[in-house]
Specification:
mainly alpha; two-stranded antiparallel sheet; 3% strand
């Protein structure tokens, strides 16, 4: 979680942050909402596909699916979710850890729900 020092009324820590996006992008509620929709769609695709890959014991596809999310998660500074993807990738290198990967994916989903809520609060705070 990234910590910020600020005298404003903004919360001082975030699970993700849109505050450092470029000014033009940040000033458009429509663009921010489209970013959130795109994130949600990509996360849902990731969770759906990894469920299938788990059943097939396809560790490499789980890692590839996670890698597709990394740029978008970096853009919104969702470091907790990025950490989950890194741990999932490391665990997929082992032959006996699919049960742990399944648990990590469930934790990833729960963290995402918190990130999603946090991002919506930030959009509402900026564009009220």
């Amino acid at each position: 979680m990234k910590e910020f020092f600020s005298l404003s009324t903004k919360p001082t820590s975030y699970r993700a942050s849109i505050y450092n996006l470029s000014g033009e992008f940040l000033n458009s509620r429509n663009q921010l909402e489209e970013l959130i929709r795109m994130l949600h769609t990509n996360i849902e695709d990731f969770l759906t596909s990894t469920k299938m890959y788990l059943k097939a014991n396809d560790r490499f596809s789980i890692v590839r699916a996670g890698n597709k999310l990394k740029n978008l998660l970096s853009m919104i500074e969702a470091y907790g979710l990025l950490d989950y993807l890194d741990v999932i990738e490391r665990e997929c290198q082992h032959l006996d850890t699919l049960n742990y990967v399944e648990k990590l994916l469930e934790d990833f989903k729960n963290e995402y729900l918190l990130v999603h809520s946090d991002l919506n609060r930030q959009i509402n705070k900026i564009h009220g």
